[in-house]
Specification:
The chain has 831 residues and is an alpha/beta fold. It has 18 helices and 35 strands. It folds into four domains: 281 residues, Glycoside hydrolase, family 3, N-terminal domain (TIM Barrel, Alpha-Beta Barrel), CATH 3.20.20; 205 residues, Rossmann fold; 115 residues, Jelly Rolls (Sandwich); 113 residues, Immunoglobulins (Immunoglobulin-like, Sandwich). It has a six-stranded mixed beta sheet. The structure holds beta-D-glucopyranose (BGC).
Length: 831
């Protein structure tokens, strides 16, 4: 019997619930509230859901349990048709984390990592509401978001889609975001359950992780979402301790339903189903986006008695229970609101402005005022092409997007001089026809549907050089031209899903063609070049271009000239991440480090604005005046960046992940078993030392620590008082704005280890935080409640939380490495 089996393994692998320490205090994980959040009664005999199931044929029940093709959709990710005869409407399921992903325009919000940087649960609620309303307005019923997998490796391709490396911060934010989404009547899906912390081999990798690490680090975000009432959970692609997450009884039944009381439904990630009876028995309810295992195969399994129909009823009942809770069974879906693009844009601007993190600011480089605001060189490709979002399923079609250059010009005003130099040509330059024999135009060739075009000739290069070949092409990745240089394919098919997911701006030309790049060391002389292109369904358009050392040097020289001629420089650096692909280095891609070093050398009043997915190394840091981390800032990114640069807004964002100095100095460095995994296994041997916990334990200095972020004003902390509240505690202190500008401070409370727990504990862990706005000179008494849970550890022997009693150190400060106040308190079990 699968149920009994799963429960047994739940206890041994993950642990059941033992209320050793009660959850309380700041509510981590937070309790349910809000209209969509009620965890309604499970269907029982006589309930509406039960009576519907009693009237459904097996085909009708199965139609609720797997995806199908939508006859009328907006290109959203998933669809189930419903049962019209019984008044059960279809469900439309759309991504995702930074806005509603359909073929129509929607508000492209800043990436979740930027939202998280604001350390503001209220803003997470507003962010959720914006997506919730838009999703309903755009005909959707279910949102495939939020993503709460922790940032564990700096290389993971989806780090921008999630919140950060700390479970408490993630939990507090995701709870509010789920409430916001569901306040508007859209069903939230927390994903990817669980341990989907990298893209490399994501569909097969087996994550080997111990119970405590899972419970203390990765799972709290999911738990908080479930307790906030999330209607659905999406299982992850990867395996966890030997079983695919989507057929893991310990996870789907043990943790989710038995421990946390989840009464919604679990769907697979896309094309992540692997079995019928095993998956259903383990607790999976819905296969997406089609019905390979939960369609005809399940019908057959029920018919031949392999799967009891009661298991189908149970899964259908879970889907219907959530639909009922959201009023979808009341005779047609509740009325849909209209879109409000203006309100969406306001939220997008607010979040991007609140989340921007000022990493460095020397010699008063920022804000740009006086002469610094009147003579500016804007440099970098993302200075003139808006970098709205990352690639993959979190990509949204934005309502609009201005470039930073336009926004800076407008803000600087008439009397100012704002020049632009691209610094790097991301789309390449024409290959001169004369370098090709026979001469051929490789610039914007159109090959009609059903036709072919081939070139077989010689490319002559005067001297040895590194060329970056850039291919622009229309249509799907499989339709792109084949390019062979000296018999080697220049753009081979990428293994895994990396081929299908393209990144944000540098992966598409302004005229909408997809882009691939390959750097090649060319020897002087003749090289055989072959190009074979076939016009697919709608024909094929392509260009083959390149950059050379000379073109790159000319771009850098132009940037340096612009930097010298201007009083101040704003240089935009980028990293174009996407789902489906991890990056291979924490360095900025391409030749950007050399560009930044040259520009900052030419003008030390250089501010580097980073549009990156996650942390980056910065070998040029000491030469720059300032660094502003904006991640993927959404459709209002230009306005937000400009407001922060000119001081119209004061930066108040904080890092939600540690930035390493280099590829050799972070928790994954030097151990391929940790990352990217060896022989299909990935060991979480760092245990509970994720992120800043690892830097602290190993005594490694990060480039910038978790919680770091500067302001244009200064804050002073005073008067820490600690008192017990139940089994938790309360930290009371005063924060004063001691500078001349209004601004927001994020006061962070960290706790030290418990002397009574014989476990490897973090030197400090975030236990609470508060974002406070203060006018110049204003002081505020701040109370941060620390839940008992934030003082507890997971006991793998007893499979439960255990309170870390005894004398604990409490630090209050401005980052994980900037404590301003310190105190001690005796933690005890309280009532
Ligand atoms: C992603 C999910 C996403 C789904 C539907 C998958 O590739 O991992 O996060 O929701 O596609 O687009």
């Amino acid at each position: 019997m699968p149920g009994a089996l799963s429960r047994r393994s739940a206890l041994s692998l993950l642990g059941g619930t033992m209320a050793v320490a009660a959850t309380g205090g700041s509510g981590w994980p937070a309790a349910a509230s809000g209209p969509g959040a009620a965890t309604g009664p499970a269907p029982g005999p006589g309930s509406r859901v039960d009576s519907l199931i009693g009237r459904m044929t097996i085909e009708e029940k199965l139609s609720l349990l797997h995806g199908a093709k939508d006859p009328h959709g907006l290109g959203q990710a998933g669809y189930t048709p419903g049962v019209p005869r019984l008044g059960i409407p279809p469900l439309r399921l759309a991504d995702g984390p930074a806005g509603v992903r359909v073929t129509r325009h929607a508000t492209a919000l800043p990436a979740p990592v930027l939202l998280a940087s604001a350390f503001d649960p209220g803003l997470a609620r507003e962010y959720g509401r914006t997506i919730g309303r838009e999703g309903r307005a755009l005909g959707q019923d279910v949102l495939l978001s939020p993503m709460v997998n922790l940032i564990r490796t700096p290389y993971a391709g989806r780090n921008f889609e999630t919140f950060g490396e700390d479970p408490l911060l993630t939990s507090e934010l995701v709870a509010e975001e789920v409430r916001g989404i569901q306040d508007e009547g859209l069903i939230a899906t927390v994903k990817h359950f669980a341990m989907n912390n990298q893209e490399h081999e994501r569909e097969s990798i087996d994550v080997i992780v111990d119970e405590r690490t899972m419970r203390e680090l990765e799972l709290p975000g999911f738990e908080a979402a479930v307790r906030a009432g999330a209607g659905a959970v999406m299982s992850a692609y990867n395996k966890v301790n030997g079983a695919f997450a989507g057929e893991s009884g310990p996870l789907l039944t043990g943790v989710l339903r038995e421990d946390w009381g989840f009464d919604g439904w679990v769907m697979t990630d896309w094309h992540a189903a692997h079995s019928t009876a095993a998956a259903l028995g383990a607790g999976l309810d819905m296969e997406m986006p089609d019905g390979e295992y939960f369609g005809g195969a399940l019908r057959k399994a029920v018919a031949d008695g392999t799967v009891p129909e009661a298991e189908v009823d149970r899964a259908a009942g879970r889907v219907l229970t959530v639909m009922d809770r959201f009023g979808l069974l009341d005779g047609g879906a509740p009325p849909r609101p209209g879109r409000d693009p203006g309100a969406g844009a306001r939220t997008a601007l607010k979040v991007a402005t609140a989340g921007g993190v000022l990493l460095r600011n020397e010699r008063g480089t920022l804000p740009l005022t006086g002469p610094a605001a009147r003579s500016i060189a804007v440099i970098g490709p993302t200075g003139s092409i808006p970098f709205v979002s990352g690639g993959g399923s979190a990509h949204v079609v934005p309502d609009h997007a201005a470039s930073p250059l336009e926004a800076i010009r407008e803000r600087a005003g008439r009397g100012a001089r704002v020049d632009y130099a691209r610094g790097e040509d991301v789309f390449g330059k024409k290959i001169p026809a004369a370098a090709l024999s026979p001469a051929a135009g490789l610039e914007k060739r159109k090959v009609a549907a059903g036709k072919s075009w081939t070139y077989d000739g010689t490319l002559t290069v005067a001297e040895a050089d590194e060329w970056t070949f850039v291919l622009h092409f229309s249509g799907p990745p499989t339709g792109r031209p084949k390019v062979l240089l000296d018999g080697e394919e220049l753009f081979p098919f990428r293994a895994g899903l990396g081929e299908y997911f393209t990144g944000g701006f540098v992966s598409a030309t302004p005229d909408g063609l997809a882009v691939r790049r390959t750097a090649v060391e060319l020897t002087a002389g003749r090289h055989r070049l072959k190009v074979a292109a076939k016009g697919g369904g709608e024909g094929l358009t392509f260009r083959l271009r390149r950059t050379t050392s000379a073109t790159r040097a000319a771009d850098v020289a132009e940037a340096v000239r612009a930097a010298r001629a201007a009083h101040s420089v704003v240089l935009f650096g980028y990293e174009d991440a996407t789902e489906g692909r991890d990056r291979t280095t924490v360095a900025l891609p391409g030749h950007q480090n050399a560009l930044i070093a040259a520009v900052a050398e030419a003008n030390p009043r250089t501010t580097v604005v980073l549009n990156t997915s996650s942390c980056t190394s910065m070998p040029w840091l000491e030469r720059t005046g300032a660094v502003l981390q904006m991640y993927y800032p959404g459709q209002e990114g230009a306005a937000a960046t400009t407001a922060l640069l000119f001081g119209d807004a004061n930066p108040g964002g904080r890092l939600t992940q540690s930035f390493p100095v280099s590829d050799d100095r972070h928790p994954m460095a030097g151990d391929p078993r940790r990352y990217p995994g060896v022989n299909g296994r990935e060991e979480y041997s760092e245990g509970v030392r994720t992120g800043y916990r690892w830097y602290d334990a190993e005594g490694v200095r990060p480039l910038f620590p978790f919680g770091h972020g500067l302001s244009y004003t200064t804050f002073a902390y005073a008067g820490l008082r600690l008192r017990r509240r139940g089994s938790g505690l309360e930290a009371v202190f005063t924060v004063r704005n001691t500078g001349r500008r209004a601004g927001a401070e994020v006061a962070q409370v960290y706790v030290g280890p418990s002397p009574d727990l014989p476990l490897d504990q973090a030197g400090r862990s975030l236990a609470g935080f508060r974002r406070i706005h203060l006018r110049p000179g204003q002081a505020r008494k701040v109370t941060v409640r620390v839940a008992a849970r934030a003082l507890s550890a997971w006991d793998s022997e007893r499979h439960g939380w255990v309170l870390g009693t005894g004398r604990r150190t409490v630090e209050v400060g401005s980052s994980s490495r900037d404590p301003r106040l310190r105190g001690h308190i005796e933690v005890r079990h309280g009532s």
